[in-house]
């Protein structure tokens, strides 16, 4: 199976390329790792050239503009990159009979529900910020592109992704905790925003399973098991690193931000073909812990 991955140098894209490289169904050459040169979100019409050159059988679209605050400051650019560009890719794939799996986000939901029920795939999409709106538009245009055309389209929503490369939430919290401890200050942590910390490598493995079983069609919620607040997750990081710092839980409104994240951003995980769910987030954090410590040590010099 010829699988192309857009955004192959990003957090999920790079994890997916690694996972697909070990998958027997991609053959000896492995996946097609598309970078910005192959699909530029600011010039998406060039995707036709990449599709005709590489002739993939399925494309996994992980490329996106995920800076939620920047999206809020420039919603038109967010819509072009996450909505319009996805539409160009989807039309290109659908007209050639190429399957497409679009990676999306929990932020297509507004997070205002008070019943504490995780969002299911068939719940009403109602984004509360420009990033979520642009990703919801991407979902819509991808599905529309496949009406009366060959091929299969799927949506894979995830949330609170962490892992290499770059400064993810655990690394940012570790840096903040160390600074606060050094200054003997209290570390404020957001206690009223809920979701599921999800390791990018686990989402990559789940996507590989969907591909292997030809089960990419429909809507999938690919998140770890369990629920946590931002403060819960931060405490887990701080405890693993042995940082002694005073903590104060505060509301998210303590900080002024361009974007408003969903307060209840919890997705209901959907079953994978094997029937095995993605592992609990604490187990994934335990696996990530050695890498996190090495990354922090390298950054400290």
Draw up the topology in text.
Blueprint: E1 3-6, H1 11-21, E2 32-33, H2 47-54, E3 58-61, H3 68-73, H4 75-95, E4 99-105, H5 130-145, E5 153-158, E6 161-162, H6 169-183, E7 187-190, E8 194-195, E9 198-199, H7 200-212, E10 218-221, E11 228-229, H8 230-241, E12 247-250, H9 281-300
Helix pairs in contact: 1-7, 4-5, 6-8, 8-9
Low-confidence regions: none
Quaternary structure annotation: single chain
Domains counted in the coordinates: how many?
A: 2
Largest sheet: 6 strands, parallel
The level 1 CATH classification of the largest domain is Alpha Beta
Mean pLDDT: 96
- Percent strand equals 5-15%
What gap, in angstroms, lies between the N and C termini?
Answer: 43 Å
Which properties best describe this structure?
12 strands; 6-stranded parallel sheet; 301 residues; Rossmann fold; 2 domains; two-stranded parallel sheet; UDP-galactose 4-epimerase, domain 1; alpha/beta
Describe, in plain words, how this protein is organized in 3D.
The protein is α/β, with parallel strands linked by helices and 301 residues long. The protein has 2 domains: 3-161 and 198-221, 3-Layer(aba) Sandwich (Rossmann fold), CATH 3.40.50; 167-195 and 226-264 and 280-300, UDP-galactose 4-epimerase, domain 1. Helix content is 41%, strand content 14%. The protein has 9 helices and 12 strands. The protein has a 6-stranded parallel sheet, with helices on both faces. A two-stranded parallel sheet has the order 6-9. It has a two-stranded parallel ribbon with strand order 7-12. Helix 1 packs across helix 7 and helix 8 (230-241) crosses helix 9 (281-300). 46% of the residues are buried.
